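Long-time lurker, first post.

We've been arguing in lab meeting about whether zinc ion would sit comfortably in this protein at all. Half the group thinks yes, half thinks no, and nobody has a model to point at. So I'm putting the question to the forum: if I give you the sequence and the SMILES, can you give me back a predicted structure of the complex? Inputs are below. Any interpretation is welcome too.
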Amino acid sequence: MPVELRLTAFFSAPVDSEALSKFWLKVDKRGPTQDHMDTRCWSWTGASNADGYGRFYYKGRDWLAHRLSFLLATGKEPKTVLHKCNNPACVRPSHLQGGDTKDNLLDLLIDRIYTDRDVA
Ligand SMILES: [Zn+2]
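Top reply:
Settle the argument with this. Predicted structure of the protein with zinc ion, as tokens:
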């Protein structure tokens, strides 16, 4: 199903506010502040997968918590949602950035160059 249709289906269905309040109960807004970020991470305290990404069951789907957070904040469900803070447990919408794989690789490259320069 195309993303637009899936989004329409998502938002036309009633919002499960009970599930959403459970979602936010699992978020610790006093997470760490990464060196390159101005604001604290919002740490996911619920279940997570082997890579450290939060997981949350919502509307019949098993979500990655940061992807659900991004969708709730922006209404968008891009192919990838990456962490500007490089903290997989973070679900703070302002720390997340949607993109495709190409953007992801570019960001990794930029990160790498940045880090190398820092070390030199
Ligand atoms: Zn963060």
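For your lab meeting: The helical segments are 3-12, 17-25, 65-74, 101-119. The pocket of zinc ion is lined by residues 41, 85, 87, 90, 92, 95 (CB under 6 Å). Whichever side wins, do check it experimentally.
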